[in-house]
Amino acid sequence: MKKIVIIRYCEIHLKGKNRGYFERMLGDNIRHALKDINHKYVKIPARYLIEEFADEDLDLILERLQKVSGIHSISSAIIVPSQKEEIFNTALSLCEGKSGTFKVETNRADKSFPIPSIELSRELGGVILDRFAKYLTVSIKNPDFVVNIDIRESGETLIYTDVIKCMGGMPVGSAGKGLLLLSGGIDSPVAGYMMAKRGMRLKALHFHSYPYTSEAAKEKVLDLARTISVYSGGIDVYVVSVTEIQEAIHENCSEEFMITMLRRFMMRIAERLANSISAQAIITGESLGQVASQTIESLTSSNSVVENIPVLRPLIAFDKLDIIAIAEKIGTFETSILPYEDCCTVFLPKFPVIKPKMEKVLKEESNLKVEELIERAMAAIEKYEL
Ligand code: ATP
Ligand code: MG
Q: How far is the CA of 185 from the centre of ligand 1 (A)?
């Protein structure tokens, strides 16, 4: 008897050549997630198995796998030689301490095993009922748990009762690379997580306005990036200072256009950086109507400076409470709500323009040396590899 972990992935979208690519990438990501834990990794049809680990590492393995995108569900299982007595004893030991309703489900891949699936399920169900009559009853339609018996062609049988639902999605690396605009707020880390879940590798870009914003604000953003990096298989964070740009806007443009102007600079810098690091999209945490800079008119203004790559806004239709629920689940919320200054709060106008008109935007912008300001900001870019 030994412990193993079963990993399942969703195959619905896997066709032809696509399948090998998906499986290889998921396999690489699983091995990366477990690289510091002793284990053996086995690929069987439509599943992966993690074997030969120390018992005390089981919980850590289960925790790590729940953060690998592309995995649909996992189970901690026991593997025994395919002999009836071994199978029954192990199944009984897994029912120990449980109560409620159950059923047995048998899958007999090894047709040389002498008992047909339905017969085995029925007999084992009876044995379990005899032993735990006080606590367990059978429900075929809606059981609280299922005793799964998987008789494999290898001569071994997998037995498990618990199925842990995981991230789902696609393996990171299977859907290109995106540049996440990462602030210290609640939304942008969630936006990054959601794109990693769809298979994007992530790079991040953070704007700060030192000395108006503190070193601590930057550290906070690096902390958030570290949390997301677990889901995205690493992340490089680029930091650009927009202090000079903000001062130039403050001196040369109408006050209410501060944020509108700044966001156009952010998007231009993002596209240039994306090009230079071969990222194929810009990702933001914007949500329609959440604040003045996220009305459709404001989005039009900031979107229109991006020339050649898509801007992905996975949260565009999300309510704040739904975003917070994801932030809590992925572990960024506690860090996000720490007090901090964001560059967008520097020179914050009392009455920001809510529906900027393009004509007016362009007129305000003509007061600035846009190209020069961008070049100087980008020359002082810093990079952190997490
Ligand atoms: P968040 O919670 O992500 O900070 P928010 O609700 O505060 O979002 P805004 O400040 O308007 O909204 O920012 C909208 C989006 O612009 C953010 O989700 C992020 O993608 C990007 N952004 C804002 N500030 C910065 C920054 N300092 N550095 C990088 N990106 C930023
Ligand atoms: Mg913000």
A: 7
Tell the residue nearest (CA) to atom 22 of ligand 1: 183
Q: What's the token pair of residue 77? A: 């299982």
**Which one-letter DSSP state was computed for residue 65?**
H
Residue 182 contacts residue 114 (beta carbons within 8 Å): no
Cα separation, 46 vs 160, in Å, equals: 17
Cα radius of gyration rounded to whole Å, the chain: 27
Tens-place pLDDT, residues 103-136: 999 999 999 999 999 999 999 999 999 999 999 9
Closest approach atom of ligand 1 to CA 342: 27
Q: How many H-runs (helices) and E-runs (strands) does the chain carry? A: 13, 15
Give CA–CA dist 282/178, Å, rounded: 6
pTM: 0.92
- Using the Cα atoms of residue 327, residue 333, residue 336 and residue 339 in order, give the sign of their dihedral: positive
Instruction: Give bridge partners of residue 76 from the DSSP assignment.
Output: 5
* Identity of the residue numbered 359: E
Give the ligand 1 atom nearest the CA of 284: 20
Pocket test for ligand 1, best of 183, 190, 243, 344 (most atoms within 8 A of CB): 183
Asked if 58 and 93 touch (Cβ cutoff 8 Å), the reply is no
